[in-house]
Amino acid sequence: MMPVLVTGIIAGASSFAYLLGCPLSFHTKPMKRTIKTIAKSILLLIGTIICLLFLYVLFNLDLFHRTKPLPAADLRTYAAAIDSKDPLQYVAEKFNTHDVVFLGELHKRQQDLAFFKDLIPYLYQAKGIKMIGWEFGAAEYQQAADSVVTAAEFDRAKAITIMRNSMYSWCFEDYLEVFRTIWQLNSTIPQDSNKVRFLQLNISFKPKSWNSPDDSIRLQTRKINFDNLLPGIIEKEVIARNQKILIYCGLHHSLTRFKTAKLFFAKDTDGRAGQRLYGKYPEKIFQICLLSPFLPRWTLYKEMTGHKQYDYVYPFDAVFNQLYDTIKKPFAVDAANPAFAGLKDYNSFYAFDRFNGIQLREFCDGVIMPAGFDQVQPVVIIPDWVPNTAALEEIKKVLPEEEARQLHSPQELMKYINPDADQEQIRRLHSQQKFW
Description:
Layout: H1 2-19, H2 29-59, H3 72-81, H4 87-94, E1 100-105, H5 110-127, E2 131-138, H6 142-150, H7 156-166, H8 173-186, E3 197-202, H9 207-210, H10 215-223, H11 226-239, E4 245-250, H12 251-254, H13 273-280, E5 285-290, H14 299-304, H15 319-327, E6 331-334, E7 344-345, E8 358-359, H16 360-363, E9 366-369, H17 389-396, H18 401-404, H19 410-417, H20 419-429
Helix pairs in contact: 1-2, 4-5, 5-8, 6-8, 11-13
């Protein structure tokens, strides 16, 4: 292999020199030694890179840990350590010591939305919480959202329009019902100053600009997103006014102390909304994870190689799932609870670049198990998401022109959005084979 490589290098160099009009002779011994030294250096560099990549892959292989069923004695120990309060009480009591509570979901699960909707009136009655915020509406439609939740009658069509203009594909009834829940609560509150405010904390998603071939448009659009918009709104509307708020959003956005992996041990250090807010007000923030199946450890590789199907994993050795099957009711635990704090997750995306896994106390402040994974159902599609051609034309304005030209009816748009695929994915993720 070495003589062939050296001969190739010499031949290439000779040709290049000849083209420059400077014929060279490589027949002297010093020149041959120089070429061999260069070739050896190149091979050494390539070998070192391959070796380092191999070690990196080996580091991220979960070779020695296997998730096992819990012994009955361990299950009894965990069950005895669960917070005696139900999950509604658990969240409410966090407002005794914190102003902002993040409730992080993994999207499109009925049980998560049902719990969130139950929380809203409960928090108002128990703790006087008058601010609710979420990821699924754009701040530019705040005035319209205020009018929906304080109107004499519930305007379903207007609520749908706010959601559709914010995120054209987020066409799910369970999210829409959050507007109705807040409106219904406000209809029982006589004084306007005491009514609940529903903060829209995101920007409107416009894929035409987000993925524009024009660098200036694309970069300008991506400068402002949910993660960097939320902290400013919360500072102005909540913290500066000595208010308290429950924020419902995707789990990744809610992360505070924990930093997700990128590649080669790099971390997402301060990019998430929760991280940014926590960095300025650590004593005011509490983050809760609504537990669902987690992405697998090698998600980054799967994304880069175009894999569409993931085999999701049970988080934290499936302890919470086994515990739910034991006590058969929703429960909540603090991540600082000594019985759970050291519980490790080895198999998920969050444990990537962590040979010895991540501990629960590193990942979040609290965990809520609203239902067993096998009980979870996907959210329901809004049947009148695109009620007419006018609504269709509004959506087409935010889509790439080539794609928009192919959509001629609301039915074609719904096929383009394909919410059925979301529902099917949720069903698949929550039909994992139990090993206990």
